[in-house]
């Protein structure tokens, strides 16, 4: 695994991504679609004193070599989570997921991944929303429209326009405020972003499996985030026996990247209550 400059190498084998700290124990951190492991570096560094070490692998959204069978494109990511949790050096085993990474983390928990605790920042768990509920349906329609615009503009040869709409809708940041190099990378990854968005939207979750998760799970959202992300967080919390729901005032969907100190403080308080910090 490639590590950040001047950061001790964690024991993670040949997995590509970012690592901080030397343990014992590990916090596996899963990034959002259209993002990457190093976007979680600031939050990871803040958490190292409490958790021992962090590992953030590259996720491909089920569209590349980590992907699983067609009916479960995120199964490769789930296997990767278990592989990294097993390298914890005998300490605590923790899991964090943001957006798409939150979906992968949720799937891992539902499939039996063994952790002491998990934190999910606005996981994309769209299948928990109910089309028969008016508010849920409006939130789902908003998400479908964002993906449809990305798809349509790519088909018209305007990948930049489609990605801009997607990033501004979910990330709530002005496209022009992003560095030119970052915009270029996002546009180049447009096909993968679309495939991941479609796979994420189609991914189902078994409510019974969610109810059987034994670990405590903190679910965080930001008050400025799109309604669909906050509704997903609410629905997931309702499915968990040991779920805790927190909303951080003033943050948006990219709060884990844009405001790492505030997210760290929320996570640390959760871990401290559990005696895991």
Key phrases:
disordered N terminus
Topology:
Elements: E1 17-21, E2 26-30, H1 41-51, E3 53-57, H2 75-85, E4 93-98, H3 100-110, E5 117-121, H4 134-155, H5 159-171, H6 180-188, H7 190-202, H8 207-211, E6 217-222, H9 227-239, E7 243-248, H10 255-258, H11 260-274
Helix pairs in contact: 1-11, 2-3, 4-5, 4-7, 4-9
Describe the structure.
The two termini are 25 Å apart. Helix 3 (100-110) links the parallel strand 4 and strand 5 (117-121). The chain is globular. The protein contains 11 helices and 7 strands. The protein has a 7-stranded mixed sheet, sandwiched between helices. With 277 residues, it is α/β, with parallel strands linked by helices. The chain has helices spanning 41-51, 75-85, 100-110, 134-155, 159-171, 180-188, 190-202, 207-211, 227-239, 255-258, 260-274; strands spanning 17-21, 26-30, 53-57, 93-98, 117-121, 217-222, 243-248. Helix 1 packs parallel to helix 11.
Cα gyration radius (Å)? 17 Å
Q: What form results from the Cα inertia axes? A: globular
Topology order in helix (H) and strand (E) letters? EEHEHEHEHHHHHEHEHH
- The number of distinct helices, counting runs of at least 4 residues, comes to 11
Strand order of the largest sheet: 1-3-2-4-5-6-7
Question: Can you give the helix content as a percent range?
Answer: 40-55%
Q: What would the average pLDDT be, to the nearest integer?
A: 89
Low-confidence stretches: 1-12, 62-70
Q: Report the sheet with the most strands, covering strand number, pairing sense and barrel closure.
A: 7 strands, mixed
